[in-house]
Amino acid sequence: MQGKERDGKVALLEIKNLGISFGGLLAVDNVSLSIEKGQLYGLIGPNGAGKTTLFNMITGVYKPTSGTFCFDGENLTGKNPIEINKKGIARTFQNIRLFKNMSIIDNVKVGLHNNHKYYMVESVFRLPRFYNEERKMEKEAIELLEVFDLDKEKDTLACNLPYGKQRKLEIARALATSPKLLLLDEPAAGMNPNETEELMETIRLIRDKFDMTILLIEHDMRLVAGICEEISVMNFGTLLASGKTSEVLNNPEVIAAYLGE
Amino acid sequence: MKKLNSKLYRNLIMVAAAIAVYAFIAYGMNTNMLPRATQTLAIKACYNVILALSLNLIVGFLGELSLGHAGFFALGAYSGCIFSINSSLPIEIRFFVAALIGGTVAAVGGFLISSSILRLQGDYLAIVTLAFGEMIRSFIKIIPYTGGTSGLNGIPSLGSKFMTFSYSYVFVIITVLVIRNIVTSRHGRAITSIRDNAIAAESVGINIKAFKIKVFTVGAFFAGIAGVILGHYINFIEPANFSYNVSIEVLVMVVLGGMGNLLGSIIAAVIITFLPEILRGFDKYRLLIYAIALILMMLAGNSPKIIELRAKAKVKIMMLRRKALARKGA
Questions:
Q1: For chain B, what is the mean pLDDT?
Q2: Distance between CA B128 and CA B122 in Å, rounded?
Q3: Partners of residue B185 in chain A, C-beta under 8 Å
Q4: pLDDT tens digits for range B222-280
Q5: How big, in percent rounded to 5, are the helix, strand and coil portions of chain B?
Q6: Which of chain B's residues have a Cβ under 8 Å away from the Cβ of A114?
Q7: How far, in Å, CA of B162 to CA of B38, rounded?
Q8: Of the partner residues A110, A114, A124, the one whose CB lies closest to the CB of residue B193
Q9: CA torsion sign, B156 to B161 to B162 to B166?
Q10: How far apart are CA A126 and CA A2, in angstroms?
Q11: Is A90 on the interface with B (CB under 8 A)?
Q12: Considering only residues 177 to 196 of chain A, which have any Cβ-Cβ distance to chain B shorter than 8 Å?
């Protein structure tokens, strides 16, 4: 579990005793995780186990009430979502949150917002930097869309995309912020087996092509067993088990809590 | 390449339309071919277009319901006109400086108000902006130099109606260009993303608070300029010119024109300015017809069925064009 010591590799994300309580309700308690660079890490657990809450803490949506987490050697506990995104953590959402009334390419360009800067004055007077940066943004956005095979329909509105492609677009938008760690919240939710298969390919591709570290929440065991190298299991807000995927999935405690006895 | 051409084509049409409208009204005014009422309304349409465009930035693009636009309108009108009365610059330059001052004062107001209501959303924001608008009006009634409830007299005129219209038109063009350029930049995309999904926008590093302040500041700036135009055109302003009814009327323009649709705002602002005059003949039923016309316009602009019909028509036109091109090629 202690990734820091093992194999001498450095942890990219180090969560220590993280917890949050809403009033009297302890939603997440004493969770410690360590994710190495380049790892594909899974987080599983029954509904209401606190997985998404953990995500929300790592991305700054909620402020943890106990514990800390370090990202890339820097303590980011309690920072706001914008700062955390700028440090290199990007996410997708369980219930897709796209900019529905914007075109596909504009969705990705919003993700590129902080990578290419010019002032509002420069856009008002259309100074050279505006055109330069816009051209770069266009190029990068199309490159990203090509990876997800969305480049042909770049001008359609996001709300007109089929479900599977909306998921892909959300991942593309998150990648546009050039993160070091990508958090995927139930990427296969609502997908049929074929789409899930395709998604697994896509996730592997992202990891290899962008040299990305990925932490994903998932209920689809086939996907988790298929691509995750290590997983953690949560139940009732606490960590039940962590380790190599095959070992954890055969752990009797995990089977009892999650897969049913 | 083809897309670039179509963009260029559209821009050219817009420029041509802007020039044509100006030429038509200028000719009508100079030869007195246009009725007097229409000439007056043409100027009113100018500042209404500016108001509608600036409110569209706040309501349509940022997605925050602001009912305090009349407040910014008033701030600009009073500060610009007080400068204009006390200055001895040549009237043309004075007008431009007054517009700049009016806009800046209103922008400062927009900045202060928006920074104090960052935590509010939806209905709450609407109510508080409404209250701020009314507060500004009440302040104007009690502070010196504004003439209080009896109004501010003796604002210099730009000369003929034609001159007033021409200067107002320049500001309309500036407003259209600036707001269009903002909306089609990375800032515009960020603003629209906040409207569509604030949580997702924050997750990709968009600073929502900063953008709210920026949008309110820019919106208020142009509302202030509209106020200066109003003052120099009727040469007399009073607090009653800036009641919340004005905010509502501008909001009606934005909603009718379509949220986040600049051309729509322009057209709706012009129609709503002229509508009461067009309906003058109906006398008794004027308000009834006004209401029905608003409902019809809303349906035409926003009903899903009609949008579907429009989309179908667009596809048909594209097919026809493609066929024509194919024939040309063959």
A1: 90
A2: 10
A3: 118, 120, 123, 130, 134
A4: 999 999 999 999 999 999 999 999 999 999 999 888 888 999 999 999 999 998 888 87
A5: 85, 0, 15
A6: 205
A7: 12
A8: A110
A9: positive
A10: 53
A11: yes
A12: 177
Place of tokens 């405690």: A253
Q: In whole angstroms, what is the distance from residue A194 CA to residue A149 CA?
A: 16
User: Which residues, numbered 201 to 220 in chain B, qualify as contacts with chain A under a Cβ-Cβ cut-off of 8 Å?
Assistant: 201-207, 214
* Residue A120 to residue A124: CA distance in whole angstroms: 6
Main-chain phi, psi angles of B294, to 5 degrees? -60, -45
pLDDT, one tens digit per residue, over A134-190 is 999 999 999 999 999 999 998 999 999 998 899 999 999 999 999 999 999 999 888
State how far the Cα of B153 lies from the Cα of A196, in Å rounded to an integer: 72
Domain A1-88+181-261 belongs to what topology?
A: Rossmann fold (3.40.50)
Q: Please give the CATH topology (third level) of the domain spanning B35-329.
A: ABC transporter involved in vitamin B12 uptake, BtuC (1.10.3470)
The burial of B250, by beta-carbon neighbours within 10 Å (0-12 exposed, 13-18 middle, 19 or more buried), is given as buried
Strand residue runs (E) in A92-227: 181-185, 213-217
Considering chain A, tell me which residue range(s) the CATH 3.40.50.300 domain(s) occupy.
Answer: 1-88+181-261
- Within A178-221, strands assigned E span 181-185, 213-217
Token duo for residue B238: 């009073």
Whether the Cβ atoms of residue A43 and residue A217 lie closer than 8 Å to each other: yes
Of the candidates B270, B251, B50, B291, the residue with the CA atom closest to the CA atom of residue B133: B251
Which chain B positions have a beta carbon within 8 Å of A111's beta carbon? 204
Radius of gyration of chain B from its Cα atoms, rounded to whole angstroms:
21
Residue B172 is which amino acid?
V
DSSP code string of A40-52 = EEEEE-STTSSHH
**Closest Cα of chain A to B6: distance in Å?**
14
Q: From the CA of B15, how many Å to the nearest CA of chain A? A: 17
Sort strands A89-91 and A181-185 into parallel, antiparallel or unpaired: parallel
